[in-house]
Design brief:
The complex is a heterodimer of chains A (141) and B (235). Chain A is built from four helices and seven strands; from the N terminus they run βαβαββααβββ. With 141 residues, chain A is α/β, with parallel strands linked by helices. The C terminus of chain B is likely disordered. Chain B has 235 residues and is α/β, with parallel strands linked by helices. Classes of the chains: A alpha/beta (141), B alpha/beta (235). At the A-B interface, α3 of A face α2 and α7 of B.
């Protein structure tokens, strides 16, 4: 199943994500692909809001993972600097994957494509113009 | 002599109190709950139910790897903190060595195997006669395929123990004769097994200070190539 959206602003990206978040369940893994500045952090901010989480969302580039806590926990990863299995292991990624109450949102999921679990939801961002973005959400059947 | 042993190396978590004659008390939980939130209440409850005060504990033992990155750090931090505060020595036990004690009644080869994801396992092999355990390989991280080709060479019956035992059994049960899957009660990491392995190390004088206690991670064999491999290349 695939849904394609067109966003014309950061706010619109957040709103698309907020609606999308309402379809998520604990244990879901959401993998982002796309360029820098395509709206991945904004999308995660909208997702957090949709999940009823009040925490402030920021890019996890430096810390590798941020945790946002509500009735579910949103784990926000950035895999940009992950280059091998040991790197990934030492982020605790596999332990987060086992958390039955967690939802994972993964920036730069291209870097760990080989270990994404079956059923991963992919969100592909494409920059179309200064503000315009295409957001393609795919779920395996 | 009293030992408090802990294991949080994978999905199960447990604590155990033992002395040189018997296992006095043990808690084990495999509920998918966060070890950082459950392990200290388990310790506290175990000690209060046992009417043992923390000062009466002579050694603090913990499985220090291989295992889950977060899990190992939780167990080690907890044991390090308690041992440091109590001014008592620690015993670091290989998670795989502890697992071998789950099958100490077996006769043959004990294959301890933990799931390291993506068809990789943490493994060590042991020659076991009831009551004696002789380690035959170092702790290692290898592919499921390698373990299969090694087990094919075995002349003795082989028992699989650990959270990778199912995985290994499903892969090789038809291909290897004499392959046994350990029963559910002895399948996973147990704090009592950590305690029994620790007892052996204490006898040999292999104790360390709280400051010397560190996790032993094993390097995983898979490379970046496999990590970045496209899942949907061959749909």
């Amino acid at each position: 199943m695939m849904n394609t959206y067109r966003s014309h602003s950061v706010r619109e990206t957040e709103e698309i994500a907020e609606q999308f978040a309402k379809t998520l369940h604990p244990g879901d893994v959401v993998a982002y692909t796309g360029d820098l500045g395509a709206g991945k952090t904004a999308f995660t901010r909208g997702m957090a809001r949709g999940l009823g989480i009040a925490d402030e969302v920021a890019s996890p580039t430096f810390a590798l993972v941020h945790e946002y806590r509500g009735s579910v926990i949103l784990y926000h990863f950035d895999m940009y600097r992950i280059t091998d299995f040991d790197d990934l292991y030492s982020t605790g990624f596999f332990d987060y994957l086992d958390d039955p109450n967690g939802i994972l949102a993964i920036e730069w999921s291209e870097n760990i494509d080989g270990v994404l679990p079956p059923g991963t939801i992919t969100v592909a961002f494409t920059v179309l113009g200064e503000e315009e973005r295409e957001i393609k959400i795919s779920r395996e059947e | 002599m009293k030992i408090l042993a802990m294991d949080t190396s994978a999905k199960a978590a447990g604590v155990c109190l033992l002395d040189e004659t018997k296992i006095l008390a043990e808690y084990s939980a495999n509920l998918g709950l966060t070890h950082s939130q459950t392990i200290m209440p388990m310790c506290e409850h175990l000690l209060s139910q046992s009417r043992i005060s923390p000062e009466e504990i002579d050694y603090f033992a913990v499985s220090n790897g291989p295992g889950s990155f977060t899990g190992l750090r939780i167990g080690i931090a907890a044991v390090k903190g308690m041992a440091y505060a109590a001014g008592k020595p620690c015993v670091a036990v290989s998670t795989l060595d502890a697992l071998a004690y789950n099958a100490v009644d077996f006769s043959g080869t004990v294959c301890c195997v933990m799931d390291a994801r993506c068809k990789q396992v943490y493994n060590a092999l042991y020659d076991v006669q009831p009551g004696t355990i002789i380690k035959r390989t170092p702790d290692r991280a290898i592919s499921l395929e390698e373990i299969g080709s090694e087990l094919k060479m075995e002349k003795n019956p082989v028992i699989l123990v650990g959270d990778g035992a199912d995985l290994c059994y499903n892969e090789y049960q038809g291909l290897l004769t004499g392959l046994v899957l350990s029963g559910a009660a002895n399948r996973y990491q147990r704090a009592s097994s950590v305690g029994l392995a620790a007892l052996e190390k204490i006898r040999k004088g292999e104790t360390i200070s709280a400051a010397e206690l560190t996790p032993e991670y094993l390097r995983l064999p898979q490379a970046q190539r496999e990590l970045m491999k496209k899942r949907r290349e061959n749909p």
